[in-house]
Write a structure and sequence with these properties.
This protein is mainly α. The protein has 10 helices and no strands. Helix 9 packs antiparallel against helix 10. It starts with a helix and ends with a helix.
């Protein structure tokens, strides 16, 4: 299966792939997941629908891989020497404007995933699991440095806390997430929960 995916992927250059992903995210912001079609992506990117299906298999995989592509920097690569520094570096990964746009996009996709098993599966496989693994590496470094205890039950809920920060900021405060908000949230909620 992995060889088939590699063979499919080899037909499009990295530059062309980046262009396609940008166009997919632009369309997604314009019309939402449910109204996004492979025909529209093909027209926007001057591609054939057959090429899109051969490369990505379907809309769900294409959308989620486009999201993943826009986050090329791995969280675990940001090793500042402290857990607090790593979390603060995570908050700086995007500027406030990009964070607001992506937060709105993710809210829409989360709603669409509830009624679309293909999208939910793609989310888990291509976005959630890789992000969880990145976060586990960061937390293991914190354990290895003696900043947090390996048996702290909050370790399993850090991703929940971070996602909750984005959702709650919009729903409760009616404000977009910002770097400053995430810094204060990490210091007030995440690190204390971890005993760091």
């Amino acid at each position: 299966m992995a060889e088939a995916a590699t063979a499919r992927r080899s037909r499009i250059t990295p530059e062309r792939e980046a262009e396609l992903y940008t166009a997919v995210l632009d369309l997604l912001r314009e019309v939402g997941y449910d109204a996004l079609t492979m025909d529209a992506v093909a027209a926007r990117t001057r591609s054939s629908k057959a090429t899109l299906y051969r490369q990505w298999g379907g809309k769900a995989e294409l959308v989620v891989k486009a999201l993943r592509h826009q986050k090329p920097l791995k969280f675990s690569d940001m090793d500042t020497g402290s857990l607090r520094g790593d979390f603060h570096a995570l908050a700086l990964r995007q500027d406030d404007c990009q964070m607001e746009q992506d937060s709105a996009l993710m809210r829409g996709l989360a709603m669409a995933a509830h009624g679309n098993p293909d999208l939910l599966k793609a989310f888990r496989e291509w976005l959630i699991e890789p992000e969880l693994e990145e976060l586990r590496r960061v937390l293991r470094r914190g354990v290895d440095r003696g900043e947090i205890r390996a048996d702290n039950p909050a370790i399993e809920y850090v991703m929940h806390m971070l996602i909750g920060a984005f959702a709650a900021r919009t729903m409760i405060d009616e404000l977009p997430p910002t770097q400053a908000f995430l810094h204060s949230y990490v210091d007030a909620v995440v690190l204390p929960a971890l005993g760091a």
